[in-house]
């Protein structure tokens, strides 16, 4: 923030669904303070009150936006209680989210993350005097994001460096001598099962095979490399292991959803 | 609009769902006439042909947008018939909607609303010669909104002051000596049941208790003030009474949906 | 594009649903290359891996956007295989889509379409060196669209004229001496059944009657011309035959969905 020029772009990630004016009024607040803002909806289909999926997508997506983008995430079951709000700078981008583990996947892979705790008392200078107790997305996150994205504010103006934050809700993949164990974090519109196992963890295997719910899936390069209807495992475009069914819906066919364990091992071992 | 400088922002509220290119072509028409427009989707999940929810959200949301914003609402079962189209100025914002009761919740609380009836015959000067009979959102509302938002047009250029408009479809909350009766207007993605009872109506009670479908809900400040799974009533961030279940889905658990009656009374009275 | 000045507007049509950050990262890539881009989501509810509906909507919608708009469509079951990518210029607009039949409905009605085949080898000049094998929307389509929309690139810079492309997946309506046969291409949020029968094909009939699934529907001008609950056929605002139920949901009531045959004949003949 201090180092990167703001891009004027703000992304919003929430568990609001595509219902009601909740994301819209955040945009209204942003445009009131910073008329030149360009706001992009990153994802609004995060399961209610489940921060890990928001953090997963943000940590895997932010690099596709211009440097100096502000990424706001509102999955906030603790709104109105004493939970803190984090501001972070990672890789030339700025992140704003409740301190509930949401940003942990981002911090995990970035040892040079600069992490701050928002000092809500200092927000009165922004004219944020009496936020509601139930919608900080509109009353705190949106105005702070607008000020950060406009370049009028930097993290250190309203936040204090911190060395502690809430850990992520999901365990990191477990790595043993002959296997890697992870979890399905999300399912896309095609029914592809997307895990938290990074491609780097697969390099130890000569011919990796993934197992989910008693089924075995061989690793391929892309969907088109198997016949329609056949299953495959692949490293997807976000760099993680995915289970898919070519021109089909793996999640529905397998009856598998978020939270399912995934195990990868050498082909001959299992 | 004659008094407030246009902000260049246009919001769109419809019952189109998130299906097809219907909202998109409205944006195309707007950008064709006014390339600098910034268009925000307010809500597209209004139940088909049910104007009251559109009016509820617009009346509760518009103040979060910059002054001089144009708010367009298309919930329009009477499209192609003789129904009128209203242009209104309220609190420095401009509103454009079919005259079917949609804007009534906005007018109710604003005695200084300036209300006009669109003179469709005068639209030929805007090059709107032959609108379709089935999609005035694209063929009338979008071009008029673009012209209003650009500052090239004011309401009085194409509309005539009117003192009559279609009343709202929902009755205002009924207030008696010992109770206030309202209705559930909408349900958000968390399953929170949102009523039309304004917080001002609750001040008459010392310890208000809300009743919906035979259940009693005590008034709390925010979701975090009860244990996960417990129910509560609260004044939400839009200033109305809401029934919620902490980290749960009240609508599903209670089997309650839009249209359910809500009664508030003193704690000891019921 | 060589003839029309770019508008700076880009539309995106996909089968990604409204899930995850897939459309968002395309926007991030676009804004990184072309910060002044204005991106409009045309439709994301195309059924997975079904190009015809994307092509139908694009061919019927593009004219409502400013001349010089770039329309990107990603319904791409063949991603990562040898399928080609088409760039086309039609009516002053630019189109970018996989060569899988998606754009066929657009080409069908435009004999002066200029069609090019993207030379992926030439993309290295744009810094597109190693696209993923599974998300060309982000890695090829988005950056090429940004360069085209910015005016820095024209189709001929990276694509070669071609006279062959994959035909559409749906047959054109069949016209015989006494009837026109088509198909339901899509269903909107109101349950209206939208066919591929253009209004021009109806002019041969004096009193056309449409038949779908054993039911007969008389042609009316608009929804408001029948009583609530009654069915009708009409030419909709996109110029095609539609079956609707006034203030009701025809698709649900009739149990009819995409793919259903539609036959139009003279009233007395059937």
Give short descriptive properties of this protein.
homotrimer; 270 residues; alpha+beta; seven-stranded mixed beta sheet; seven-stranded mixed β-barrel; 30% strand
Radius of gyration of chain A: 20 Å
**DSSP strand (E) fraction of chain A?**
25-35%
The tally of helices of chain A reads 6
Spans of at least 5 consecutive residues with low confidence of chain A: none
Specify the structural class of chain A. alpha+beta
Largest interface: B-C, 29 and 36 residues
Query: Main sheet of chain A?
Result: 7 strands, mixed
Q: What does the oligomeric state look like here?
A: homotrimer
What is the H/E order of chain A? EHEHEEEHEHHEEEEEEEEHE
End-to-end C-alpha gap of chain A: 49 Å
Question: Looking at the structure, what is the overall shape of chain A?
Answer: elongated
Name the strands of the widest sheet of chain A in spatial order.
2-1-3-5-4-6-7
Short recap of the structure:
Three copies of one chain form a homotrimer. In chain A, 19% of the residues lie in helices and 30% in strands.
How does this model look, in words?
Three copies of one chain form a homotrimer. In chain A, helix 1 runs parallel beside helix 4 (about 135-150). Chain A contains six helices and 15 strands. In chain A, the strands form two sheets. Chain A has a seven-stranded mixed beta sheet with strand order 2-1-3-5-4-6-7, with helices on both faces. The first copy, chain A, has a seven-stranded mixed β-barrel with strand order 9-10-14-13-12-11-15. Chain A is elongated and about 65 Å long. Chain A is of the alpha+beta class. The interface of B and C includes residues 32, 48 and 134 of B.
């Amino acid at each position: 923030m201090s180092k990167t020029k703001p891009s004027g772009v703000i992304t919003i990630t929430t568990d609001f669904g595509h219902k009601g004016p909740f994301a819209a009024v955040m945009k209204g607040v942003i445009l009131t303070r910073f008329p030149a803002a360009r706001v992009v909806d990153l994802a609004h289909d995060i399961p209610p009150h489940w921060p890990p999926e928001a953090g997963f997508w943000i940590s895997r997506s932010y690099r596709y936006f211009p440097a100096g983008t502000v990424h706001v995430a509102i999955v906030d079951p603790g709104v109105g209680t004493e939970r803190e709000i984090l501001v972070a700078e990672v890789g030339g981008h700025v992140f704003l989210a409740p301190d509930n583990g949401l940003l942990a996947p981002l911090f995990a892979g970035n040892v040079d993350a600069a992490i701050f705790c928002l000092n809500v008392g200092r927000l009165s200078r922004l004219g944020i005097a009496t936020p509601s107790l139930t919608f900080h997305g509109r009353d705190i996150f949106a105005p702070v994001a607008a000020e950060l994205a406009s370049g009028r504010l930097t993290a250190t103006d309203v936040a204090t460096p911190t060395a502690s934050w809430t850990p992520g809700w999901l365990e990191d993949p477990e790595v043993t001598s002959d296997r890697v164990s992870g979890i399905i974090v999300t399912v896309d519109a095609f029914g592809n099962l997307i895990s938290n196992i990074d491609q780097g963890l697969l390099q130890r295997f000569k011919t990796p095979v993934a197992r989910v719910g008693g089924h075995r899936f061989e690793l391929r390069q892309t969907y088109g490399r198997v016949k329609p209807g056949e299953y495959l495992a692949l490293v997807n475009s976000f760099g993680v292991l995915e289970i898919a069914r070519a021109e089909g819906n793996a999640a529905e066919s397998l009856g598998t959803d978020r939270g399912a364990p995934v195990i990868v091992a050498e082909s001959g071992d299992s």
